[in-house]
Design goal:
AcylCoA_DH/ox_N_sf, flavoprotein, 301 residues, 11% strand, Acyl-CoA dehydrogenase
């Protein structure tokens, strides 16, 4: 399998990176413009692999990783899945559910403007209608509004096992992007911050931290590319490859985000600095479509 992006995919990545640089700056992550979602829809990112779009999962993963680098709205993940497997128009929020849907609390992320929410139930993607007045308050990830439904409404499965794999793949792509963002932020700060009349990046201990972050990104990205290709090819081992991609991406995002806070020193612990945004996004992504241990160990039936 050739994991090198082709010319068309490189064009998608370049166009996405340029648009995000202009419209999704990290320093504005907590106060995104109200029209942002309409802009994302106009760019076609809310349903790239929906019927009629004819884009493969590999291209989608490349683009979502770039969007994840800029901490794009988390509902892009759930909206893309419902567009592909349920033909659901409009915005779909992301739900985190208990395994047993007979009751309990459901956390709904990025609900404003959404008509439905999507979550995983026993590995299967499922959706439910949302109340029209469901809003949200700041939660773990300060860029994502959080609302609650208690008790859980009824959810309807969509798309079979592949829909759940699709969500896990896209969450892995977002995590790879988050790891990239933390790596870049740490490296840039290491070039600018000076101690003893030289940039702190000159010191070997900081070089090692930044180098390890870069290695984690490349490992996670390579597995993401392979997993996306396996899903496109209908590989019977796609579930394992996607689980491995999610595991490596979550690890890279969390460890790079922590390293970024460390590189920033005292300022990295403050709310007005940006490193904590990557760390909180990484934690949130680790709860989305989490990896099953039996799949990673090759014990799944």
């Amino acid at each position: 399998m050739d994991l090198t992006p082709n010319d068309e995919q490189v064009s998608f990545i370049s166009a996405t990176a340029k648009w995000c640089a202009d419209n999704l700056p990290l320093d504005g992550a907590r106060s995104r413009p109200p029209a942002l979602w309409q802009q994302l829809e106009a760019m076609g990112w809310t349903g790239m692999t929906a019927p009629g779009m004819d884009l493969d999962h590999a291209t989608e993963a490349l683009v979502l990783a770039e969007l994840g680098r800029h901490l794009a709205p988390i509902a892009l993940l759930s909206t893309a899945v419902t567009a592909r497997w349920a033909g659901q128009p409009g915005k779909t929020a992301l739900a985190l559910l208990d395994k047993d849907l007979t009751g309990g609390l459901v956390r709904v992320f990025d609900a404003p403007g959404a008509t439905h929410a999507l979550g995983l139930v026993g590995g299967l993607a499922a959706i439910t209608p949302l109340p029209s007045d469901l809003g949200g308050e700041p939660g773990l990830d300060l860029t994502v509004p959080l609302a609650h439904l208690d008790p859980a409404p009824p959810f309807s499965p969509i798309g079979g096992p592949d829909a759940g794999l699709h969500l896990q793949l896209l969450a892995a792509a977002f995590a790879v992007g988050c790891a990239d963002a933390a790596r870049d932020m740490a490296a840039e700060y290491a070039k600018l911050r000076e101690q003893f009349d030289r940039p702190i990046g000159w010191f070997q201990a900081l070089k090692h931290i930044c180098s390890d972050s870069a290695v984690r990104c490349e490992v996670a990205r390579s597995q993401l590319y392979y997993a996306a290709g396996a899903l496109d090819a209908g590989d019977p081992g796609a579930a394992f490859h996607i689980a491995a991609a999610k595991q490596l991406a979550d690890q890279a995002a969390l460890e790079n985000a922590r390293a970024n806070v460390q590189v920033h020193g005292g300022i990295g612990m403050t709310d007005e600095a940006a490193p904590h945004l990557c760390l909180k996004r990484a934690h949130l992504l680790s709860f989305i479509a989490p990896v099953r241990r039996d799949i990673l160990l090759g014990e799944a039936a």
